[in-house]
Amino acid sequence: MFFILFVSIVILQRLIEVIIAKRNEKRMLAAGAYEAGASHYPYMIALHIGFFVSLITEVLLLRQSISPWFEWLFILFILVQVLRVWCLASLGPFWNTKIIILPGANVVKKGPYHLFRHPNYLVVCIEILLLPLMFQAYFTAICFTILNFAMLAIRIPTEEKALMEATNYSKEFKKKENNVVPNDQQQ
Q: Quick check: pTM over 0.90?
């Protein structure tokens, strides 16, 4: 019963995020934005739906129980959720589940995006591994971690290419890279 409640809350969170993404998409498109990488988006949706179907099926059919490490995994899960909210809040109207590009826009370089390029993808990677481990669904953890890495191998280059072509992405990240001085050149 706890598992069903827990997973239902996570699924509800994802559905709310889809609503937010749709709202942001409409605003961005009205402002002149366009979608990049539309061809892989249905596969990404299928991956995420398949993840929850696999997780629920594995836990219920195999009667998996809560991990002996659940308390620690749950604390990590909460920390990851804080990072998730920080990502969404930092991107504001630019956050989306699709790759929506507004030509001429300045890339967001605040919050976790000031620290590294794709913190939201890190959140998803951790969750796809963490949620199954919390309930000893090892097949789902391994299988969907691999599938997610394959998806991100397509998605991240597509997103970066679109951002480089239409925004100040290259300039901003080149500037950050140029500010890094190798250890052997530091005074």
A: no
